[in-house]
Amino acid sequence: MINKKRYISLAKKNVDIQIKELAKIKKIFNNSFIKAIDLILNCKGKVIFAGVGKSGLIARKISATFSSVGIPSFFCDPAQALHGDMGQIEKRDVLIIFSYSGNTQELTNMLIYANRFRIKIIGVASRPESLLLKASDIKLLLPIVREADVTGMVPTSSTSITMLLGDTLATTVMYIKKFSKEKFKVFHPGGNIGNSLLLSKDIMVTGNKMPVINYNKNFKEALKEMNRKKLGIVVILKNKFITGLVTDGDLRRELKSYSQNNNLHKFMTKTPFVVNENMPASKALAIMNEKKITSLLVVSDKNYKKKNKILKGIIHIHFLLQNGIK
Q1: How far is the C-alpha of 112 from the C-alpha of 20, rounded, in Å?
Q2: Euclidean distance between CA atoms 298 and 310, whole angstroms
Q3: DSSP output for 216-261
Q4: Helix crossing, 54-68 with 157-176: angle to 10°?
Q5: CB 159 within 8 Å of CB 166
Q6: Tens of pLDDT along 74-119?
Q7: How far apart are CA 319 and CA 105, in angstroms?
């Protein structure tokens, strides 16, 4: 009978091997790595990735990472490049080619083409005398690593360390270019990552769309403004500062003792919940859930801690849900 606990011991053994082998990545961080980063940073065209087989899969992933942080990039399959795709590669581009052995036959024509048209090549391989590194302008020499499978032959540690190098190129470039969450959001307007980066100011209504009324107005005028803007609230302003909030519930309760000249300050909420414009939208939703409210008033960062606050926008729970905030 198979001891199923052995599954875990085998998995841990695999992990231990790979962690040990991945530590060798530090050998790559030399003058060639510096030149590779400089070449990418100064690229006037696209950063094009290529590779065959598992190296091709890694190249696709790293290319996608570069694109996601605003660096024009695409993957070019060396095999398909024989049928015209190499026309996409221009002199001002940088070509980054992954091949652990460095002697993959399918790379030959791509290397010849790039060298003929003086396209800069960053080669990533583990053999210094390989075809790829000989043809490359910048040579990133991967360390020889022990594969983690039972035969020691299946690409495991070698693919992991190649992926790690690619990610390191991307993250180093991001740091130098001062890439931020705000910039990331521009390239990821949809999806879970983009949604998680949305701020209050990204989804609030502003200007004439905000239901606001002067503090000396009456019940009837407040009701008219609420019906016109359809957010279920009216913000009461005094000398442009937030002085209170009236909800549709407040107005319904006031109907019992309705008078056209009812003064709003008698039944408004005098300390409405306020958030700053750079609060994450997900946090704003959490506040709404906790306080059991449907709207939040938004002010600028500079104004947030002041006693007298100037209204900059309004977030309604529907805006959060429509943007996929959970």
Answers
A1: 37
A2: 9
A3: T-BHHHHHHHHHHH-SSEEEEEETTEEEEEEEHHHHHHHGGG--TT
A4: 20
A5: no
A6: 998 887 765 556 777 888 999 999 999 999 888 888 998 898 889 9
A7: 54
| Percentage of residues of the chain with pLDDT beyond 90 | 45
Cα separation values, 140 from 19, 37, 98, 122, 160, Å: 21, 11, 10, 7, 15
Pick out the chain residues at pLDDT < 50: none
Token pair 């581009």: residue: 93
The kind and range of the H/E element at 123 are: strand 120-125
| Residue 47 β-bridge partners | 73, 94
Name beta bridge partners: 96.
49, 122
| Assessment of whether the complete model's pTM goes beyond 0.70 | no
Strand partners, 263: 218
Q: Concatenated DSSP letters for 140-165?
A: EEPPP----SSSS-SSSHHHHHHHHH
- Give dist(CA 39, CA 122) in Å, integer: 9
User: Which amino acid is it at 199?
Assistant: L
State which H helix or E strand residue 233 sits in: strand 233-238
